[in-house]
């Protein structure tokens, strides 16, 4: 789902949990659709958030895809902007359910002027 308020395009996404059949292709297809929508609204700032069902700091296929999408589209991971080493999951499933942590992450368009300390 996407919503535009003034010049901000906000996406609310929910990625499939670990163990979902065809998870990589679902994630890839979603990012293709996100890219197409973002291309249609190039002059808007972008926020992507909700439940990615992965820990973005871990080395796995979904986290790599999300981080690569952010890099390819000049987006920031706002959970990493301020140097916080005490990141907390917003929710963590029991590992016996084959699910990883879920995070709410906001992405900020790098082309917009802002005072962000790296």
Distance between the termini: 30 Å
Physical arrangement of strands within the biggest beta sheet = 1-2-3
As for the CATH topology, it is Deoxyribonuclease I, Chain A
Assigned CATH class? Alpha Beta
Series of secondary-structure elements, N-terminal to C-terminal: EEHEHEEEE
Are there runs of 5+ residues with pLDDT below 50, and where?
A: 97-118
Residue-averaged pLDDT: 75
Based on Cα principal axes, name the global outline.
globular
Overall tally of structural domains: 1
Specify the CATH homologous superfamily.
Endonuclease/exonuclease/phosphatase
Q: What class do helices, strands and sheet pairing give?
A: alpha+beta
Strand fraction = 15-25%
How many individual helices?
Answer: 2
CATH architecture: 4-Layer Sandwich
- Portion of residues in helices? 25-40%
> Strand tally, please?
7
- Give the biggest sheet: 3 strands, mixed
- Report Rg: 14 Å
What does the model show?
The protein has 118 residues and is an alpha+beta fold. The chain has a single domain, classed as Deoxyribonuclease I, Chain A (4-Layer Sandwich). It has two helices and seven strands; from the N terminus they run E-E-H-E-H-E-E-E-E. The protein has helices at residues 23-40, 61-72, and strands spanning 2-5, 8-14, 45-51, 75-77, 91-92, 101-102, 107-109. The strands form three sheets. The chain has a three-stranded mixed β-sheet, with no helix packed on it. Strand 5 (91-92) and strand 6 form a beta hairpin. The protein is globular, with a radius of gyration of 14 Å. The model is unreliable at 97-118 (pLDDT under 50).
């Amino acid at each position: 789902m996407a919503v535009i308020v003034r010049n901000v395009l906000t996406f609310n996404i929910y990625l499939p949990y670990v163990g979902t059949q065809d998870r990589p292709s679902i994630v890839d297809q979603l990012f293709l659709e996100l890219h197409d929508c973002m291309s249609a609204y190039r002059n808007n700032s972008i926020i992507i958030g909700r439940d990615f069902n992965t820990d973005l700091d871990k080395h796995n296929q979904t986290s790599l895809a999300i981080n690569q999408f952010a890099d390819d589209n000049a987006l920031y991971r706002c959970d990493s902007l301020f140097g916080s080493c005490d990141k907390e999951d917003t929710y963590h499933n029991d590992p016996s359910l084959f699910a990883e942590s879920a995070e709410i992450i906001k992405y900020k368009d790098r082309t917009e002027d802002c005072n962000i300390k790296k």
